[in-house]
Write a structure and sequence with these properties.
Strand order of the largest sheet: 1-2-3-4
Distance between the termini: 38 Å
Number of strands: 4
Radius of gyration: 18 Å
Order of helices and strands: HEEEEHHHH
Length: 155
């Protein structure tokens, strides 16, 4: 089996599991739906994929992981540093401004904690984003929850 994941495997994995975030050495890092009842942040998985005489196949899945655990699993299984998360050789996530999945929730969380948004600013933000104030507040709340869930692992 080829070490590179081909598009057919990625397409099949996307349909079956969710968004394929990264691939290496026949291992896929996938962002799934809403987590589990016990752990709402368990939205990630890694799985091995390939093509055999029956078509695309998947095996040896590690399911229901938070982002930090999934990155460690991806590194351990593929031997590759994921391009999206900046994992060190010891598989410990590092602080990085290039890691959008960490920095965007952190950024919004810090704005919410440290900046007073005036009514005029909120109106401007609502207009520019074509959203209501409650939807923007929901974005801030989701960012805060995400930051609380992953922040300690990265900083």
């Amino acid at each position: 089996m080829n070490n590179e994941i081909n598009q057919q495997i990625i397409d099949e994995a996307t349909c079956k599991f969710g968004l394929v975030v990264d691939t290496s050495q026949n291992v896929l890092l996938i962002k799934r739906g809403g987590g589990t009842f016990a752990n709402p942040n368990a939205k990630y998985m890694t799985i091995k994929g390939g093509i055999n005489e029956n078509g695309v196949s998947f095996h040896d899945g590690h399911y229901d992981m938070d982002l930090g655990s999934a990155v460690v699993s991806f590194y351990a299984r593929s031997g590759s540093i994921t391009r999206n998360y900046g994992v060190t050789e010891s598989a410990k996530p590092i602080k990085s401004l290039d890691n959008n999945l960490v920095q965007y929730p952190r950024f919004l969380s810090e704005i919410r904690a440290n900046v007073v948004i005036s009514e005029q600013d909120m109106d401007s933000l609502c207009d520019s984003m074509s959203l209501g104030a409650s939807a923007i507040e929901d974005l801030f709340e989701r960012a805060e929850a995400e930051w609380q869930s992953i922040g300690k692992k990265y900083l």
